[in-house]
Structures are given as structure tokens and as C-alpha cells.
Here is the input.
Amino acid sequence: MHIARIGLGVAAATSVAALAVTALGTAAPAAVPHTLAVPAVAGHTLVHSVSSPLTSEQCQAKWHINCYNPLQYRKAYDLNALYRQGVTGKGRTIVIVDSYGSPTVQHDLDVYSHQFGLPSTKVKVVKWGHVPAFDPKNSDMTGWAGETTLDVELAHAVAPAAKIVLVETAVSETEGTTGLPEMMDAEKHLIDHGVGDVISQSFGATENTFPGFDHGNFSSIKNLRYAFQDANRKKVTVLAASGDGGATDLKADGKTYYKKRVNSWPSSDPLVTSIGGTELHLNDAGDRVTPDSVYNASQHDFGAGGGGQSHVFTRPSFQDGVKSVVGTRRGTPDISMAAAVNGGAWIYSSYDPTAVGWDVTGGTSEATPIFSGIVALADQAAGHRVGNIQKALYSLYAHHAKANGIVDVNDGTDNSYQGVTGYKAVNGYDLATGVGTVDALKFVPALARASSRG
Here is the structure.
């Protein structure tokens, strides 16, 4: 079994220039990075980084891609009015779980925040196990450091006053006996000690790669659910990225893709809210030029938003209203946020002394921390944890979705990837973007109200 770090980075300067020449002009996108992480553009070495973030217009002119900063995201998701009302995530805590972490995460968040005029926040680091010393020449560690940087900076961008707890685990997620149990143990420990209102997970493993799957024995997955069951009891919201492999995902080797539709855990778990991916089309002010579309490879991107039917979990009751789409199975994603690399997020990092500066990064591991910030805002607005949001989310979708801040993504494109036909974004719920995306000004108070009734 291979557990993938979900997230795609576009390294700046020489790497991005090469990307514009090579990858964007071809139909076949670069492979999604796996646990032994390399820079997102396979074959390009991360040598230099951009000294300061560029505007979307400059990115288009220079590299033929869109690139967005947190101020654009705030405008796009209608967050500024909430901030003016004092809804900033204050008093709430986001827990982010990553292998190894980053030795420069606090410094990098401070630089990121200062660049865009945001208040910074103290990142509390929890080391779970004997986390080895960081080695900037270890591509596995730098890959996870990049993921950590993305997770922390994007969660903070959306919920600037929320506390952030970063859990660094001591081993990377390879094989089910060494990686996922540590992450689940760490999550359960924090939940049991009252730490965290929402947990953001930017990792996943294809269900088919778990021991016993081929024989219909799903105990290896179901025995790992203890942290989520605990979270459900303690009213902690758990999120997971739906993946960047569209309707397929990686095999156990972490390099090749299944030639059929598959799904991944923990995103497929009914106790987890699965976060899919969209592509935003914004101007430099953050206004939409066109409606959001599916994050997919047909737009000359790198990856596609994960989605489809679980082969392990049957349809949960909260999806009964969309059974015509999901059938008898659990369907993912539940909801989607910005994830396309063409339209990715600027992040700042300095963990690699040979590549200090600004990069453009995407993937559903961008979407997931963004949505963790949305949940933290709803927690504050409600005055308590909103907890497992699934029942509330699908209820808001079924009754006056638009008024509740749920914005349909129905551009007609799909999440096909690596030759496996995906699912189209159509009117209403679909297996490309779930119920759609959000207008936070309406969605945050609606979710707060719905959770109070639940």
C-alpha cells in the first residue's frame, strides 16, 4: 500500500519557465508526486524561487498560468464581510497533520503574512514520536515540508485569528503499519485532550492497496477509523483531500495509476468530509471572470480533483438525497475549493536553503486547509464546534442551497485523468465537485445555524 501526500507544487523561476515550455504544451500532465516527493514538475530541479509573488496578469504573461494570493481568495470566497463582523476564527483551533513537518514553518508563515498585510499567528508544533532531524537533501522530507507550508499558510489565510496546531509525525506514510496508524494515534490523542476543533488531512491511500481489499476484507481500513469515531463523539470536524488523480489514483508503487475507477481513504470515509477541487478564474482584484470549473487535466493542469464511489463504504444516510448519483456507495467529494495548479496559490518557504522564496502550489491539499479555515469561522460563529458537518451540509444543499451559500459548479467538464473517464460537473451534486463550492458570507452562518439544530 502506498499513501500519497496530496499536493502539487509549481516551483518558480527556472522550473516554472520550463513548465511553461514543456508541460503546458502537452496533453499528458506530469505525474502526481508520491510519498517520495519530488518537485511537482517531474524532472525539473528546484534550484531558484521567485523573490516576490507576481500578479495573475504577470503569471499569465510570463508562464501562461494563473496564480493567486490570499487577498484574491478572500474576495473570491466572500470572506471580507465576515472579517468585518469579527468572524476571523478567534478562539478556534485548526489541527494540521503532516509527516516530518518543516523546520521553518513559523518564519515562513510570518513572511507570508507580512507580504499580504495579514496578522501572523503562533504555530504550535507537536512532535509525535521521534521525528528525525530535518535534512534538506532528503526529497521525502522536503516534499512533506512543502505540504506543511501549504497547509499552514492557506488555513491561516482563511481563518487569520484561529490557532494552528501542526502535528509532525516521525515516519512518512509508507505501508499501512508504519504511517497511517501513527497519524491516527496522534489525532486521537489530541481529540481526547480537547485540542482542535477541525482536523485537516492532506494525504490519502487508494482503497485497493490496503491489505485484504482484493478478497473483500476491509478490516485493514476499518481498524484505522478509531480517530474519526472519536472525533465524531467529541464533535471535532475531520476533513480529507479527495486526491489529485481524478476518478483513479495511484497503485502501491506510488508511481503508476489504476486503469479503472478507484477511490481513496480517508477521503472516502463517511465520518470524514471529502474536499474536492475546483479551478478559479479570477482577475487581480479577486473577482470572478468566469464561474469556477472542475480542477482537471484538460485545462493543461497537473492532476484532477479526486471523486467517485467508494468500494469499501456503502452509502451513508446523509447521501440518501443524492442516491441517484452515488448509488449504493459512499460518494466523494462532498464539497470543493480551489485546487488547480493553473490558478494555484502563492506560498513562501525557506526550509530548503537552495530554494528560498515563493512558489505556486495546488492540489486538493490546497483545498482542504482552505476549507478548514471555513469550518473554524463557522465554529466561532456558532459559539461551539460544528462537529461532523455531513448531515448539515447535505441539508443545506437540499433546502435553498444558494441562500445557504452553496454555489453549484456545473461547467460540464470532468475529472478524467490518466486515461480513466471521470465524472462531469452538472447541475446539482456530482462526483466531480460534490455539492459545489461556497460563498462564505452566506455559508458560514448557515452552517453555524444548521449545526446548532443538529
Observations:
- The two ends are 37 Å apart (CA to CA).
- Residues 11-48, 173-177 have pLDDT under 50 and may be disordered.
- The first strand starts at residue 3 and ends at 5.
- Residues 154 and 370 are 6 Å apart (CA to CA).
